[in-house]
Write a structure and sequence with these properties.
The complex is a heterodimer of chains A (441) and B (330).
Chain A lengths: L1 H32 L1 H5 L12 H14 L2 H5 L12 E4 L2 E4 L16 H10 L14 H4 L4 H12 L12 E2 L6 H11 L13 H11 L5 H4 L17 E2 L6 E2 L5 H4 L6 H10 L10 H8 L6 H14 L15 H14 L1 H4 L6 E2 L5 E3 L6 H4 L4 H9 L1 E2 L11 E2 L8 H13 L10 H10 L3
Antiparallel strand pairs in A: 1-2, 2-3, 4-5, 6-7, 8-9
Chain B lengths: L2 H9 L22 H13 L10 H22 L1 H16 L18 H4 L1 H7 L19 H12 L6 H7 L4 H12 L16 H13 L9 H5 L18 H13 L9 H8 L2 H11 L41
The chains are: A mainly alpha (441), B mainly alpha (330).
Amino acid sequence: MKAPRMARIGWGLAGALLALTAFVAWDNWGDTWLAPAQQDARPPALAAPLEPTAQIERGHYLARAGNCVACHTARGAAPMAGGRRIETPFGTVFSSNLTPDARTGLGAWNSQDFWQALHHGRSKDGRLLTPAFPYNHTSVITRADSDDLLAWLQSLPAVDQATPPHTLIWPVGTQAALAVWRSLFFSPRPFQNDPAQSAEWNRGAYLVQGLGHCAACHSPRNALGASGAVDDLSGGLMPVLNWYAPNLGSDPETGLASTPLRDTVQLLRTGQSPQAQTSGPMAEVVQHGTQHMTETDLHAMAVYLQSRAQKTASAAPVRAKVSLAVAIKGLKTYERHCVQCHGEQGQGITTAAGAVAYPALAGNRAVLLNDPTNLVQMVLYGGYGPATALHPRPFGMPPAVLELDDRDIATVLTHLRTQWGNQASEVTPLQVNRIRAAQGH
Amino acid sequence: MGIGHLARVGGAAGADMQCGHGGGILKGGKSDLDIGHGLNGNEKTTGCVHMDVQSPTRYCRRFGYRQEMLTLMNTWKWSPVWIVSTLLACSAAALAQSPPPPAAAPRPRFADNMAERTRACTACHGDQGRAGPDGYYPRLAGKPAGYLHNQLRNFAQGRRHYELMTRLVDPLSDEYLGEMARYFSALQLPYAQPAATNTISAERLAKGQQWVTQGNPSLGVPACTQCHGLRLTGVQPNVPGLLGLPLDYLNAQLGAWQTGQRQAHAPDCMAEVVRRIPAEDLIAVSSWLARQALPADTHPAPRPPAGPPLPATLRCGSAPELSSTAGGQP
């Protein structure tokens, strides 16, 4: 009696697996099987532009808005020729060569191929792309913008540089695994215009959700490496890089709801504002991306971001109960290393011209973030904010990685999180040690 | 809370005490934790604050910290009334909301200038870029501006590898890096006496001198002086001096050039030169260089020494003026 029953279960499982496989395959490649029927449903390719130079310029602007160069250019190498190592929790991927080289780049690609890569996350040959390329965001981009981007890329000097193969752990990089991953976490989705909102709001939403790919960092990633939806801005710890991208919807974390729009625009344009400073990966975004955007677009993004931020404060912060030993050590480390620039009351220094030279630590949202990762990064490596056209000569902070041990850093961070009215949790040496170890120091 | 905490802190004295950063950090203003001022007073007895930048930081870390903790313990022992009242005050300060702070004293220290903007550099490279106190970080002051600018570009563009430098220069523009290079280049500071004391025979030192002053024509290696100047103080605008550098730094750079770890703009003449020198002679070269006192005139020479330019096989992308055929700047 048992054998036939087992066989039935076996057949049933096999059938279910087959159906699932068929579904995943259909989900990932189905549109190409129906290519002729689907053709009409696709946005039509634009006719040859009347002004190719204007199109190239638009494409260049869009590429900057998307900060494409950050991943698609290796250090010191030709722009957009790819080959940059990008470490992920699943191994290393190498960015593709987007220059118009026929063999190793996009030389043989037409605008439909490029649109397929942006919108469907599929290469010209139908290969599924690894989601290190944030195609859930590029899927939002309009066909017109996609064509403009390609026009700019095709105007670059061709660079013959083959992209090294990814070295992802098995089976992550396989097409089957990618297909399953995509069925779980990705479906091509053009931008949804919200008629209830203003044109400016919609423009901001389009930029934030599409080219800006803000949620790639500002949303939490799950165990399979998938970030949240394109409009999920609830904050997340960036894997490998190990910076916390704050929750853009939380006023205590980023203050976007209560920050004047002009300050948000200034932050994206110059890298700093009276309210905040950019550092770490966001400094790179400003340097290569947002500083080059028009005031109109930045304002639109600020309008959208402000509408997404909640004014309501989160639970009342709990002031850390700090032992005397920690308090003394924290104060002493602060007086040794920090007080000269950040001031005895954590007030920072402002230049005579009114620019922030060294930010105030009292009341600084970045200091009060529950996750101390960014603070530890700042203390370990110091550094400069981005030098931008409107803020070309920033002041910098010395690295302390060679000077301070875990306990020094933990106590001094606890000090500045509990002084001058600041109320945030204590930072422990163990927390510092973990963050430091993740950086390889 | 109690003596146990203090003892643990004392036992864990790590990299807490550190001079450098120019001293002058201690201040007379009021603070939430008055006990901190007591400690600061003790720091002065260690001499830490008054040491110049070249002072070994370890001295301050080890001895300064211990002395402070001992003093704290003594205070505990001899003045229970004082310490109890201070502890209460501290607890109140640490556990409760801080009272409104008094207005900060004026801060004459801050000046909106390049010295202030390069504090992230001088923390390691020494005050005004005069060289770090640890015998490794090289001097910046007075080096040719083109050379300094090229090195900053090399870090930014992946031809030199030191993570701290890369992270510092990454967010900055090429113009700003150039301004920093010109700032350090214009600083005129005296050099320290050569301090190399590694064991090396007189013959090997002579061999080193021979490489530096004559090169080896049969191996196609020009004398160091041909590009770095007869006084070895560098040549404007792109060639660095070779004197006044720590032995460890010289060894690390020659080694890095030999392995390809350090590169310059292509074509990389220095890499080619180092590859032609036998590995065992590199230490002779660095040992001889690190033993030479600076000449009276420490400025980089305005132009390369008279004589034939470098052969076509030794073109310098970072100093095209040295070559018989034009090199390439990026």
